[in-house]
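User: Teach me something about this protein's shape.
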Amino acid sequence: MRVGVLALQGAVHAHLGALQRIGVDSCPLRRPGDLDAVDAVVIPGGESTTMSMLLASSELLEPLRRFVADGMPIFGTCAGMIVLASEIEDGRDDQVALGAIDITVQRNGYGRQLQSFETDVALPETGTFHAIFIRAPRVIRVGGGVEVLAHHRGDPVLLRQGSVLVASFHPELTNDPSIHELFVNSVLRAGMAG
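Assistant: First, the predicted structure itself:
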């Protein structure tokens, strides 16, 4: 299995490092053809409106849309969650929402940079995860067929629908591989890795 990390901005190297630490072959994705060499994609955190513009200017937007439409495994953290959502509240009119997972997210739903925080969230099967929320999106609607895997004060913060996993927080900024392992194991269980 090879996992590509969208390398337009954000915590690209942290995700690559997390995947390498659990023994997964990974590479940065910068050009449309790069998607042909991977079995799954990670969209890191960053700034979602900037990421939308960079997806268009790098000509990765349409190939990524096809990747999503084909049901390929994809994992989005923070801004990546926003890009993968079906609806974005408080976003720009031209902001990308790929509709990969049936949720509505509110940009900066937990506040701006000064309101960033860390907390523990309970994960299924693996126990507690120390989650880092930085200008994090808040999930304000969860559609049918979406599984909520973790909450923070009643808000869904880790969700899955089919081959799509999203997190409001930044698992790549910790030394705990649980969330990346959850994604990789779901890809393997689904038999989607080449």
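Now, about its shape. Residues 140 and 154 are 11 Å apart (CA to CA). The chain has one domain: 2-189. If you'd like, I can walk through any region in more detail.
User: That's plenty for now, thanks!
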